[in-house]
Design goal:
The complex is a heterodimer of chains A (358) and B (301). With 358 residues, chain A is α+β, with helices and mostly antiparallel strands. Chain A contains 9 helices and 20 strands. Chain B has 14 helices and no strands. The chains are: A alpha+beta (358), B mainly alpha (301). Chains A and B meet through strand 6 and helix 4 of A and helix 10, helix 11 and helix 14 of B.
């Protein structure tokens, strides 16, 4: 089922949680709402579910305005961050709850309910836990039971609020892969909220980046990572080196240093933010070099496929911390020593007009 | 609510006690223990013992006579009647108020929370006087009540009102922190799964607060049976008609009928002891539930 939200605004007292947000969630996709805490992503999810009432704007489910439809009738599945399993019920009863609460006429018989519950527990691979209580399960197991419970009522959409937020790193990775697989099997329109960019990039078909109640960018993981639309998106996805500068004929002037750049749509004299990913900075060890930002090597971290070099630019005009990612061979070739003075040359720079970011 | 904290605390405490590095010197431990036990013996246990001692001083026969005297029996009946009406009333009110305060946001929530505490902070005698001022012969509604031949003051309705007022906060006070700690997530989950308001309350909210409700009912009941001040003002103490057990004890005592007074007092004390026993059983039971949960949580994952 497709979901549209149009012009949704929501305030809590003086705090603006959502400011005229309009989005389109196509049928069958797995979409991530990504953003820092307080950006309004959970509020938006709860408004779609009907657990929160928007101040203005509307939620359209499958072409029908559902703004005044009660949560009960929206047929959404909601998975809570802390699972919200019913503590006093067994796993079986938790999953059966939605079916047992149906009005008498629509309520399936006990044997149908039992079949359905076991089928769902098999789907989440936890059939053997049917008689346990939630307190006897691990976090990952609870999350999967919460998902089975949400699926029991055959929801038209599945909404997940920080589904892996409370789990440790390893279980989290496992569940991520599992959720992706489950979605590929069920093809139910799903939206999940996360503040973890890696999670969003890895799992989602499409990512909605939010900040301060606004939508910053919508796109596939490749699009938002490779072509960030705003400084916020650039800074939020992956690590980044940021510096301020002014565009002139020779390139970008940062303090008294000059660096080359490829973007030509800026007038001379424009004040800009410049972004470079750690792998987009080259280290020049030649002391005679004049181009590039001056910096001092602080630490070389060589583990994994690539090495990280931390540099301190406090000697030069930028006065800030830099992070550069190099291959192991390059690091060996450069033979960097802590304290060594080098210059940084960006191979790719993304510029944003300074007024743009406020 | 206190039981939850207790159990986790207890487990920590035993570990703390066994460790030489964190253990207090023996003499400190024993003097604190001695102080509190001594206080308990002197001010609580001895008076209680004295009641039973005085009651049985002249033997079992006068004791039984005092208890099965018609006035005493009617006082017992009246006490139980009042408790039987006041406690269920407050059960309904208390659960409703706690639900409102813990699960919803509305204007005036703080005011309602404060209002619930009023019966705790107002002297019971004042409570009685308030009702006399409203329903008494010269009170605001006195003339109207007389015209319709309705008796509130110096009759059962007045005593019910006074007792209900005094036992007002027990159940609500017990449930509000419990329900606040539990949050709204389980209820929200139930609604999303299609449950209606009544189903949410019956299948999700109530099972989660059941032990708190029972605990509150026991406390409210103990107070309803033992209430003296407020009831004494509105009852008029018509012997055999509007005397509850505590009032009956006072009447007997004022008549220098000490043995009978203590006999009836011992009956009241017995009711209190039974209540206490049920209360500690409930505490034990809910504590056991609380212990199971965190322990099994630790071993998995």
């Amino acid at each position: 089922m497709s979901i549209q939200v149009s012009n949704i605004s929501k305030r809590f007292g003086n705090f603006v949680a959502l400011d005229k947000v309009s989005l389109d969630f196509p049928s069958g996709e797995l979409v991530a709402l990504l953003g820092p805490s307080g950006c309004g992503k959970t509020t938006l999810l709860r408004i779609i579910a009907g657990l929160e009432q928007a101040d203005s704007g509307s939620v359209i489910l499958e072409g029908e305005d559902a703004s005044s439809t009660h949560v009960r009738e929206r047929q959404v599945g909601f998975v809570f961050q802390h699972y919200a399993l019913f503590k006093h019920m067994t796993v079986f009863e938790n999953v059966a709850f939605g079916l047992r609460m149906k009005p008498r006429g629509q309520r399936p018989s006990d044997s149908v309910i039992a079949d359905k519950v076991h089928q769902l527990l098999n789907l989440v691979q936890l059939d053997w836990l049917a008689d346990r209580f939630p307190a006897q399960l691990s976090g990952g197991q609870r999350q999967r039971i919460a998902l089975a419970r949400a699926l029991a009522v055959e929801p038209r959409v599945l909404l997940l609020d920080e589904p892996f937020g409370a789990l440790d790193a390893k279980v989290r990775k496992e569940l991520r892969r599992w959720l992706r697989k489950l979605h590929d099997e069920l093809h139910i329109t799903s939206i999940f909220v996360t503040h973890d960019q890696e999670e969003a990039l890895e799992v989602a078909d499409r990512i909605v980046l939010m900040d301060h109640g606004h939508v910053e960018q919508v796109g596939t993981p490749e699009q938002v990572y490779n072509q960030p639309a705003t400084p916020f998106v650039y800074g939020f996805l992956g690590s980044v080196n940021l510096f301020h500068g002014r565009v002139d004929e020779g390139g970008l002037k940062v303090g008294d240093a000059t660096v080359p750049h490829q973007q030509s749509n800026f007038a001379n004299g424009a004040e800009v933010f410049a972004f470079a990913r750690p792998h987009e900075l080259d280290i020049v060890t030649d002391p005679a070099a004049t181009k590039g930002l001056g910096a001092k090597v602080v630490r070389v971290l060589s583990f994994g496929v690539s090495s990280k070099v931390e540099l301190d630019g406090s000697g030069s005009a930028t006065g800030q911390h830099f992070e550069v990612e190099l291959s192991q061979q390059e690091v060996q070739k450069l033979a960097l020593q802590p304290g060594q003075l080098v210059r940084l040359l960006p191979s790719r720079l993304k510029l944003f007009e300074r007024t743009h970011a406020g | 609510m206190s039981t939850t904290a207790n159990t986790a605390h207890l487990r920590h405490q035993t570990r703390f006690e066994r460790n030489a590095a964190t253990r207090e010197p023996r003499w400190i431990k024993w003097s604190i223990l001695g102080l509190s036990l001594g206080f308990f013996l002197l001010f609580i246990f001895m008076p209680l013992l004295a009641v039973f001692f005085e009651a049985l001083r002249k033997g079992w026969s006068p004791y039984l006579h005092a208890i099965i005297a018609p006035d005493a029996l009617s006082a017992l009946r009246l006490t139980l009647t009042i408790a039987l009406v006041a406690v269920p009333l407050n059960l309904v009110f208390g659960v409703a108020a706690a639900w409102l305060i813990a699960k919803f946001d509305f204007r005036g929530k703080q005011l309602l929370t404060t209002l619930i505490d009023i019966p705790f902070s107002v002297s019971p005698v004042i409570v009685g006087l308030m009702y006399v001022l409203i329903f008494g012969a010269n009170g605001w509604l006195g003339a109207w009540l007389q015209a319709h031949n309705l008796h509130v003051i110096f009759a059962l309705p007045g005593m019910l009102l006074a007792t209900t007022f005094v036992t007002f906060p027990f159940i609500a006070r017990e449930l509000i922190p419990l329900m606040q700690a539990q949050g709204r997530e389980e209820e929200e989950a139930a609604v999303v799964l299609g449950a209606n308001g009544w189903q949410v309350f019956w299948h999700v909210t109530l099972p989660n607060i059941l032990w708190g409700v029972i605990y509150g009912v026991i406390l409210a009941n103990a107070r309803a049976m033992g209430e003296f001040g407020a009831v004494s003002v509105v009852s008029g103490k018509l012997r055999g008609l509007t005397t509850t057990l505590p009032l009956h004890v006072e009447i007997l005592y004022n008549e220098y009928n000490f043995a009978a007074a203590f006999a009836v007092a011992s009956l009241l004390a017995l009711l209190a002891l039974v209540t206490l026993a049920i209360k500690s059983w409930v505490e034990h039971h809910s504590a056991a539930q609380q212990i199971n949960a965190p322990l099994s949580m630790e071993k998995t994952s």
